[in-house]
Write a structure and sequence with these properties.
Length: 415
Amino acid sequence: MTGRERNNKIAALCGAAVVIVVIAAAMVIGMSKSGSARKMTSEQMACGENHVLAVDASGEVYAWGHNLKGELGDVTCDNKNAPVHIEVPGKVVQVAAGNELSFALCKNGDLYAWGDNESWQMGDGMNISRMEPEKVMEDVRAIAAGSAHALAIKKDGALYVWGRNKNGALGIADSECDQKDAEGIACQSTAYKLMDDVVSISAGQDYSMAVTADGTLYAWGLDSDGQLGLKKPDSVSDNKQAYQSVPAKVMDGVSRVICGSHYHAMALTESGDLYAWGKASVGSISTRDVDDTKNQIQTVPLKIMSDVKDVAAGSAHSIALKNDGTAYAWGVNNFGQLGIKRGQFTYTIGEETIFCQAKPKKLAENVEAIAAGGFMSMYRTKDGVLRTVGCNLYGQLGIGSDESSITTPHAVYLK
């Protein structure tokens, strides 16, 4: 069995009704001291399921990790265990990474995409995958990538969606979509306007979230594990999975939202309070005391931490950056993505023991920015160093190593 097949098998087991585990990963990208004198924000680095993007001080893009669909953008399909420079026209200010898809947003509002496009997730009207960046949109202010769909906020605050509409991921009816992919799933090939006055967006596996200017959080798409934060969504699919077909209000007073790639999500308020919801059986929402004890799911937002500056989420683990610069991590730790070797409790799948941590553990101090992917974590400290930890099956730690996992954060050098 290949490493990728092994990961998919564990992740599938996690979605079962019984308490099982998901492989998660977090990733910490680090920049060398000579790489930048300018502060890097979380928007300038991003983790997909198994690949990473980072932007240096001059707005240049670097990528590493899994590359089967050309998601690194270096005109190859070879995995890279160290950063490679990617040619994107213009100065890049934000990057976003989906499953096997990448986006780069330039300062002038031009949006570039590369990687998997079989479900029209680039939004350019074609379903041809690209191995190097191609311009797909203009006048964009922010971008978010889901598993096979994407969201963009235009400069006027309007939210646009495109890609695969499985389980209502786009927040529109299948009849509104103009294409179908190889599986017969409805897809939208070009940007579709969904909402106005949007300030924050995030997307995961077939679900999406947005925050409007008045602080209202909306969610739509798959809700199989309570990841939408809604007590009861409005629809059920043919295979009996719950989903929300149109945007529905989750809570007020939100400044930012972050979707885990599969089973949980979090919201940050202006006052620094952090709320979480979704599957709790592996500790991914920092508590096992939930409102649906039978399924180990927190169905509505639950406050889990205060004094938080930023938050990131992988498949089943999370990272919070406190105002004092301390980063904490919790959730699944099967690859050491929390920066520790074990955890509070375990699950056994066949002959494999999975370590999990519900109580937040200190990952690092003097941190400026954080990000998390499917199986790894990443952060940047105030001295300008970018670091990664966790799964490295495809070189996604970017440290030039072929080790399958690393439990101690290592520096990544972009140059």
